[in-house]
Write a structure and sequence with these properties.
The chain is of the alpha+beta class. The protein folds into three domains: 41-155, Beta-Lactamase; 204-301, Orthogonal Bundle (Helix Hairpins); 306-453, Histidine kinase-like ATPase, C-terminal domain (Heat Shock Protein 90). Helices cover 53% and strands 13% of the residues. It contains ten helices and ten strands. The chain has helices at 4-40, 43-69, 157-197, 207-210, 215-264, 269-296, 310-327, 346-362, 409-415, 421-431, and strands at 77-81, 128-133, 140-144, 306-309, 331-335, 341-344, 369-376, 380-386, 435-440, 446-453. The strands form three sheets. A five-stranded mixed beta sheet has the order 5-7-8-10-9. The protein has a three-stranded antiparallel beta sheet with strand order 1-3-2, with helices on one face. The longest helix is centred in the middle third of the chain and has 50 residues, at 215-264. The chain is rod-shaped and about 150 Å long.
């Protein structure tokens, strides 16, 4: 996966490489231009031109000639200085071209021009390229580099300014690209989060963001998962409210009917009161189960854990269910080795087993058997409760652990169940870091299997 760190790291070094390459390019370009200017500079021709101008018109003509030469395009400055080192045009003379820096190897006034060939003394790194007295001895012709020479490019301010501008441009472009790589996905996620906050449960990050292979792509995936779970939870909440309303409405309706019948037929009052009592008990179970399920679903719920012997805990659950099983002529068997300890909340875990046992008893034919088995493994504990009832359709095996879900609503209402028992069981199991699943038995019936992590002492 390409991380944001790698993007920043590579972008940094790419910007450094581009800045270095640009700096080298500027330096080479300036040095090459100055070298060409140096090669094209003809000191003999310059000296003859100044001498001829002075002979033809004295200081006036020399000043005109110097005014034209002052606008040279090769960055070489030409001065005509008096004995005190002051320029004829009143310009400031760079320190490098003062008379005390004059080369002792200047060509003589009558030296012939060497064409475009540069004399040997100009191959040096001196700022002074030419320093020679003019006819009459009053003036001296001086030419040279005002700042850095052709061989000292980095000493020129314009080169540093150019390199600084290039560095600013390259780093700015790279920073803009990098900022866009990070901020654009963040803005897209922000827009999706805003839509989700406004109630659009279908808000999802765009495909291009999901396709990213860095931390922002992972964040988009997590956002999608969060949005899906939020939608599922809200849908479950709506379904839960509908189911609770339905479950509470049925016994309340029967209570009203019983009350009306009691008024009409006071002689059969005991029968009506018994019906009212049954419906009140049903309401109490529904409300109690709903409150317990809500308590089980509270985030961060802490368990009152203590190490208990699972064989004893399962034995207590089987004994509690045996009364109801005997009434239906159903045999309960327990196969659990002693001495298997597990840290758990015994009251909650016994309720989970009790819910499954009572559910198995209600849906098992008379004369059948329900087997409770505890199996141990290297790092797992498995508890299975198997009945010989009619089983569950395959498509409903996972949904039976949902709140208020019943395979047969009419049968569930007849048995007094509200569809919360197995949902509470699943929640209690999850609080103990375990899992619960249902499978149909090949020979008929249903097996509910609990799996818990276990570390042997």
């Amino acid at each position: 996966m390409r991380s944001i760190f790698s993007r920043i790291f590579l972008s940094f070094w790419l910007a450094m490489a581009l800045i270095a390459a640009s700096a080298v390019g500027v330096t080479v370009a300036v040095a090459w231009a100055r070298a060409e200017a140096l090669e094209a500079f003809d000191p003999g021709a310059l000296l003859r031109g100044a001498s001829q101008a002075w002979r033809e018109g004295g200081d006036t003509q020399l000043r005109q000639w110097l005014t034209g030469e002052a606008r040279r395009a090769d960055n070489i400055m030409v001065f005509v200085l008096d004995a005190q080192g002051r320029d004829m045009l009143g310009r400031t003379v760079p320190a490098q071209l003062h008379l005390d820096q004059a080369s002792t190897k200047s060509p003589p006034p009558g030296a012939p021009s060497s064409g475009n060939a540069t004399p040997g003394f100009m191959r040096r790194r001196d700022h002074m390229l030419l320093s020679s007295p003019l006819p009459g001895g009053q003036w001296r012709l001086v030419a040279g580099w005002p700042g850095a020479t052709a061989f000292d490019v980095l000493g020129s301010y314009d080169v540093w300014i150019a390199m600084g501008l290039l560095a600013l441009g390259v780093s700015g472009a790279m920073a803009w690209w990098l900022a866009r790589q990070i901020s654009h996905p963040v803005v897209a996620l922000q827009a999706s989060a805003r839509r989700l906050a406004e109630g659009d449960l279908g808000a999802r990050p765009e495909d291009w963001l999901m396709a990213r292979r860095d931390e922002l792509g992972s964040l988009a995936g997590e956002f999608t998962t969060m949005a899906q779970r939020l939608r599922q939870q809200l849908d479950s909440k709506d379904e839960l409210l509908r189911d609770i309303s339905h479950e509470l409405r049925s016994p309340l309706t029967r209570l009203r009917v019983a009350a009306a019948l009691a008024r009409q037929n006071a002689g059969d009052l005991e029968t009506h009161l018994a019906r009212v009592e049954r419906d009140i008990d049903r309401l109490d179970r529904i409300i109690g189960d709903t409150l317990r399920f809500s308590a089980m679903s509270t985030p961060g719920r802490q368990l009152d854990r203590q190490v208990v012997d699972l064989a004893e805990l399962l034995g207590e659950a089987v004994d509690d269910a045996r009364i109801e099983a005997d009434q239906r002529r159903i045999a309960l068997s327990l196969n659990a080795p002693d001495g298997v300890g597990m840290p758990c909340d015994p009251d909650l875990l016994r309720r989970a087993f009790d819910n499954v046992l009572r559910n198995a008893i209600r849906h098992s034919p008379a004369g059948e058997q329900i087997a409770v088995t505890l199996e141990t493994g290297p790092d797992r504990l498995s508890i299975s409760i198997a009945d010989r009832g009619e089983g569950v359709p395959d498509e409903a095996l996972e949904r039976i652990f949902e709140a208020f879900y019943r395979v047969d609503k009419a049968r569930g209402a007849q048995s007094g169940g509200a569809g919360l028992g197995l949902a509470i069981t699943a929640r209690i199991t999850a609080l103990h870091d375990g899992s619960v699943a249902a499978v149909n038995r090949p020979e008929g019936g249903l097996t509910i299997r609990f799996d818990f992590p276990h570390q042997w002492p």
